[in-house]
Amino acid sequence: MIERIFIKNYRQFQELEFTPDPSLNIIVGDNEAGKTTLLDAIAMAIEGRSNGRPLGEDLNPYWFNTDVVDDYFDQRIQNKNVEPPFILIEVYMSKTDQPQTLRGRVNSRSEDCPGFAIEVKVDPEYITEFEKYVRDCCSLIKDAKNATFKTSHRASETPTVSGSLNYTPRHTLPTEYYRVTWRGFDNRVLYRRPKDMNILVLNNGTTKLGQRANYSSKQLFKECIDPKTNAEISVKHRQERNMLTAELLASINREISETHDHFGDRLTLEIDQSSASSWDTAVIPHVNGLPFSDAGQGQQIIVQTSLTLSAMSRNPQLILIEEPESHLSHTSLFHVLERIERLSRGRQVFITTHSSFVLNRLGLKHLKLLHNGKITTFSDLSEETELYFQKQTGYDTLRMVLARTLVIVEGPSDELVFRKAYEDRFARKPELDWIDILAQGTRYARALELCAALDRNVVVLRDNDGQSAAHWTEPVSQFLSDSTRKLFVSDPAHGKTLEPQMIYANHARVSDLKAVVGCSPDMELNTYMTHNKTTWALRVAVSNSEFAYPDYINQALDFLKDLAQSE
């Protein structure tokens, strides 16, 4: 079991320290937050391979955190003597679990435990070449910057080389002069993964499905076919191949011996009987009678997941799964998750996802939010709230988790009107300001609790339904904050719902509002709007007219403006 993960200067992470749960860890985050990078780092440290190749063969400049590299070259340009960028990945294992053969104190914490480490540093044998490269690169960067500066002060002059003076070379490390060391915490260099450390990696997005399925089917053969049966099949297979040689190739071999001189050597064509052509190499998975490669991609992923989990179900200590929802329907995903849950019991599992269904189904208590190179965990949610989201598998939880600022409204008409009010006020769509609007009805208490645990900026708007603002605020006050999370309730004096509130705000332009929403002159406007909630809101939203909006909506917009200015 992994007790701690430490990553320094690898891809998105300048420094990440993560203490995972001993059971399930669900990793979520924005695109490019580092979810895949985290799983890659774990797999690399334990398997000693990257993209199926030894680490040294896959090493390239893009392994290094770009901010760290840029800072290094900036300091070298200033003639500062600084350490070259390096990469360190450490995986700390439980003190009582295997592999105890890797136990030692050679880690950044000097902690006595088993563990794996990857170090990427400048090879001492190439330090001279590395320094020359850096000096040359710094000189080139200086020249480019000086040329750019001169050009900017001679705007009337035409540069002699078009575009070249405005280009600053990219800081790139010469990884050819670096050395990758894969070792245990006992400081012994590793060349293969220890036998007592089993890991399963499942990535439906990048794995070559056919190859994985073929491999997994062979693993199933080993599990499901006893040695005696395997031997019987192998002998029968060899006999049949011998018959093919004797019957079908005999005439060809006679012609070869009669017509071709091979310097006294007897040359014949025969069916291969080596282990490379054993019976199981001719067996491939079929799905509903079709070869695996001809099945649909979703079906391929279901079969691949099933085969892979089955093949490794006996003794994997660690399971890494990347986006299990890829290419799967809702029902298929349900079955896959059920299988993952069953086989992961008693094992440590890391799952990345972009699916609220996966997050809700597996449980928010396992949530790990990756943002700005840090991981946030959530242990303060009540058991009831966690159970609520788990049972509400269709609830768009991930939108709340990932939103920078969240606006919660009651229904579609409220969302349409609020969007229109926002665009009228700020002349831009709310999403461009990283604001996500979510219609939740009046079920916002659980959402507020989650957002409080996330420390999210939240605006909640609701109808008063004939009650004071205090009536609705008091039950959720523990989750509110004057600076980041507020509930805005309409004024009971102006009506119970959005419709009379909107009419009151535009009392001087009732005829204009009637015309826009499609209410006939002889019909009472409130009645029409109440019976056509989404219709009138949509017509207001798409109109070119600017209307006045209820006070609670304007107050919410003011609050959002203050939030943006404070960031």
Quick structural overview:
This protein has 567 residues and is of the alpha/beta class.
Task: Describe the protein.
This protein has helices at 35-47, 55-58, 66-77, 127-152, 209-224, 227-248, 250-259, 297-311, 330-343, 356-362, 383-391, 397-402, 412-426, 445-454, 469-473, 498-505, 510-517, 525-531, 533-542, 551-566; strands spanning 2-10, 13-18, 24-28, 49-50, 53-54, 87-93, 103-104, 113-122, 178-184, 199-203, 286-287, 290-291, 318-322, 348-352, 367-371, 374-377, 405-409, 435-439, 457-462, 485-489. With 567 residues, it is an alpha/beta fold. Strands 1, 2, 6, 7, 8 and 9 form a six-stranded antiparallel β-sheet that branches. The protein has a six-stranded mixed β-sheet with strand order 10-13-14-3-15-16, with helices on both faces. The longest helix has 26 residues, at 127-152. It is built from 20 helices and 20 strands. The radius of gyration is 32 Å and the shape is extended.
